[in-house]
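Encode chain A's predicted structure.
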Amino acid sequence: MPDEADQAHAIEEHNRTMAQRQRHTTLPAVGKCHYCDELVDAGRRFCGRDCLEDFERIDAARKRGGVRT
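Encoded structure for chain A:
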């Protein structure tokens, strides 16, 4: 039987997963990663966490005016 730490970890992981799903709902799922253009499964926007985090970092810099397109 899982202890309280295991249960807390499971809840935290669930909350993180749900938050990630809601981050970029405005980006269309186009069959490829929005960061590296790798093919992804239907409904996905990024191929993995690394590309998601890199995309968010660059997107935040653009919004601050720190990166030119």
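The first helix runs from residue 4 to 23.
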